[in-house]
Amino acid sequence: MSVLRIAIQKSGRLTESSRKLIAESGIEVEQVGAQLRSAAYNFPIELFFLRDDDIPEYVADGVVDAAIVGLNIVKEQEVEARVVRELGFGRCRLSIAVPKGVAYSGVNSLEGLRIATSYPNILRNYLASKKVTAEITEISGSVEIAPSIGLGDAVCDLVSSGSTLISNGLVEVEPVLQSQAVLVASPTLSPNKEEILQKFLFRINAVLRARNTKYITLNTPTEAIPEIVKLLPGMKSPSVLPLNLPGWSSLHTVVAEDEFWEIVEKLKAAGAQGILVLPIEKVIE
Ligand code: PRP
Ligand code: ZN
């Protein structure tokens, strides 16, 4: 019986969300203490808890079959790995930043500068695409302090909230790469493992689709139903139940949460009352 080995970040910005996604997919894994690997009880996967920087290499070498890791790390390491799905969390960007007060008038201002980064490959490709010649200083951590200790004129580092830049007196000037957590897999899996990967993906898809989707119920004068249905995006036939009040109905439908906030005022203006918004756990297509 095959088991799919999946790596996740041991501790860091993706760890909690990765574990949550797996748990919400109905897969139970227990990690005791600093255990490096742990098999799920009710699904044929085994989780490996690894440093994120090591993960693409392990996938490429076949030590693990798949992983949840930042796209930034996959791109930087330029290894053989198939990006199976974007996961919608761990969003951040790799950006070039310069010390506050430095004159900056576009990417040509980087010409001849020394840029400190842990992402030399991505930065090199970016500078080449912009036809800028700059010196890349590779450092493995705490890139944000490089300018203040004379290790560079600028940095190229991950930005999430932006607070690291602010507290180090740096200003973001060029976004280089948009990143988020992705599910990656080895390009060559055995048919058995590929089947497990697809089952895992099926569950993840159901969870991720549900995250931005809400179940809406509302009460409405029956005569207003055609107008309200027109307002509800993408749902041609919501369920309609009669209320125990002549001329009134209850309407049930599913909408994307972003879309809901855009139409809620219009729904009320059209006569909707008692609007309830409920979370959905899974959406199967
Ligand atoms: C990144 C980056 C910054 C910080 C930016 O490190 O190197 O230090 O996050 O986040 P902020 O904009 O919210 O302040 P990360 O925590 O990913 O650690 P790692 O690169 O060492 O894995
Ligand atoms: Zn890291």
Written account of the structure:
The chain has 285 residues and is an alpha/beta fold. The chain folds into three domains: 4-89 and 180-210, 3-Layer(aba) Sandwich (D-Maltodextrin-Binding Protein, domain 2), CATH 3.40.190; 92-179, Periplasmic binding protein-like II (D-Maltodextrin-Binding Protein, domain 2, 3-Layer(aba) Sandwich), CATH 3.40.190; 212-279, 2-Layer Sandwich (Alpha-Beta Plaits), CATH 3.30.70.120. It contains eight helices and 15 strands. The strands form three sheets. The chain has a six-stranded mixed sheet with strand order 2-3-1-4-11-5, with helices on both faces. Strands 8-7-9-6-10 form a five-stranded mixed sheet. A four-stranded antiparallel sheet has the order 13-14-12-15. It starts with a strand and ends in a 6-residue tail after the last strand. Zinc ion binds next to loops.
Quick summary:
This protein has 8 helices and 15 strands. The chain is α/β, with parallel strands linked by helices and 285 residues long. The strands form 3 sheets. A 6-stranded mixed sheet has the order 2-3-1-4-11-5, with helices on both faces.
